[in-house]
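Hello Y.,

Per our agreement to keep a running log of every chain we model this quarter, I'm adding this entry. I've kept the format consistent with earlier entries: sequence first, then predicted structure.
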Amino acid sequence: MDRAIDALQAAATPLTTGELLAAAGSAGSVRTAVQKLSADDRLVRTGRNRWALAGTGATPYSPLAARSTAAPRHRRQPPTLPPATELLRPPHTP
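Predicted structure for the entry above:
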């Protein structure tokens, strides 16, 4: 982890998980790296795949916030129904 911290200090900008793995000289999995980075109080997650030093003023990543600002998905419109009074009216007989 110390090498990842050194890389972030040298870069002075958030880095991706892959960049931090490379800086640490580790060939481990990204999942394991994310778990270790998340557990380190010196780091803050700033994006889905980005990390910064804690205390630098970087905005912490929140998956819910990211989802709420995303464009809404296209949803099929529900069928148009007549008003309830029309549905309850007995059928017209001539």
